[in-house]
Amino acid sequence: VQLQASGGGLVQPGGSLRLSCAASGLSFGTYVMGWHRQAPGKERELVGDVSRGGSTYYAASAKGRFTISRDNTKNTAYLQMDSLKPEDTAVYYCGARRPGTGRYDYWGQGTLVTVSS
């Protein structure tokens, strides 16, 4: 199983980025796909997730600015981030878990997002 996160980079405050998570080696459509982030010196936190059918959940910090989606035909999940703030700077990870469980079975390698002027 491989989850390949991409799309990170340097962006100015107020800007946008779209992260992608390409999955292989698993039955993508049966997993909930989640995005987490870890800022320097902080614990990893959930940004949000998307169910097999496309229902989404967002942490309070992401609600209204971030959009999570998936394309089951491409085995890919997305995190669209708008109105980015310096405090969004972190390594972003995608993960896959089975519905009804809180534990993630698989993780991607992470992609760095830096929000700075």
Describe the structure.
- This protein has strands at 2-6, 9-11, 17-24, 32-38, 45-50, 56-58, 66-71, 76-81, 90-97, 106-107, 111-115.
- With 117 residues, the protein is mainly β.
- The strands form 2 sheets. Strands 2, 4, 5, 6, 9, 10 and 11 form a 7-stranded mixed β-sheet that branches. Strands 1-3-8-7 form a 4-stranded antiparallel β-sheet, with no helix packed on it.
- Strand 9 (90-97) and strand 10 form a beta hairpin.
- The radius of gyration is 13 Å and the shape is globular.
- It starts with a strand and ends with a strand.
- The mean pLDDT is 97.
Structure summary:
With 117 residues, this protein is mainly β.
Q: What is the secondary structure topology, with strand pairs?
A:
Elements: E1 2-6, E2 9-11, E3 17-24, E4 32-38, E5 45-50, E6 56-58, E7 66-71, E8 76-81, E9 90-97, E10 106-107, E11 111-115
Parallel strand pairs: 2-11
Antiparallel strand pairs: 1-3, 3-8, 4-5, 4-9, 5-6, 7-8, 9-10, 9-11
Radius of gyration, CA atoms, in whole angstroms: 13 Å
Structural class: mainly beta
**Major pleated sheet:** 7 strands, mixed
Number of H- or I-type helical stretches: 0
* Helix proportion: under 10%
Helix-strand string: EEEEEEEEEEE
Count of extended strands:
11
- Cα end-to-end separation: 37 Å
Mean pLDDT: 97
Q: In oligomeric terms, what are we looking at? A: single chain
Which percent band covers the strand fraction?
over 45%
- Uncertain runs with pLDDT below 50, 5 residues or more? none
- Shape descriptor reads globular
